[in-house]
Design brief:
elongated, disordered N terminus, mainly alpha, 65% helix
């Protein structure tokens, strides 16, 4: 996974907020679904607008427009950012962000998050937070070190006591000692 998982969801939040701000600046009377659709079609926006995050805003417009007035306000966007920061994202939301290319994460990182979503969701609320992702990553790293230690320990023991699968020409440290004492 990523080296700094604390920033995973904050990166998504920043991308959505920055995209909203860019679009809202173009439409001072309010950001409507029609405005987002129009902005995504403008060639002038091609290099400045993150089309993936704009797509997310467009596809989730009715969910984001909490009061149903047809406009996503700065307050509604702020509430979304706070909700992502405190409550996290659902697997469906992460999948949608990943499919639209909006998450800003590598394919391998996102694949690991989606594959281990249920394990990461330690409070079983159907959402994962940056803290849950980090805790999972730390636990996975700890388990990897333990596995390496246990494998090394098993190898060291087979060298000391001998390995029954080894050829008859090899000796353990114990058999070498006993062999030299018999001579």
């Amino acid at each position: 996974m990523a080296n700094n998982n604390n920033g995973i969801l904050s990166g998504i939040t920043a991308g959505l907020t920055n995209t909203y701000s860019y679009l809202a600046a173009q439409y001072p009377n309010g950001l409507t679904l029609e405005n987002i659709t129009e902005a995504r079609g403008k060639t002038a926006n091609a290099n400045l607008l993150n089309n993936s995050f704009a797509s997310y805003l467009q596809n989730n417009f009715s969910t984001l427009d909490k009061d149903g007035d047809g406009i996503i306000t700065a307050e509604e966007m702020n509430n979304l950012s706070n909700m992502i920061s405190t409550k996290g994202l659902t697997k469906a939301e992460l999948t949608q962000l990943y499919a639209s290319g909006s998450c800003g994460l590598s394919e391998s990182t996102m694949t690991k998050i989606l594959e281990h979503f249920d394990e990461m969701d330690t409070n079983h609320d159907g959402r994962i937070t940056s803290a849950e992702i980090s805790a999972f990553d730390i636990n996975a790293s700890r388990m990897e070190v333990e596995d390496q230690f246990n494998n090394r320990r098993a190898t060291d023991m087979s060298v000391f006591y001998g390995d029954s699968s080894a050829s008859s020409d090899t000796y353990s440290l114990l058999s070498y000692k006993y062999k030299s004492n018999k001579s």
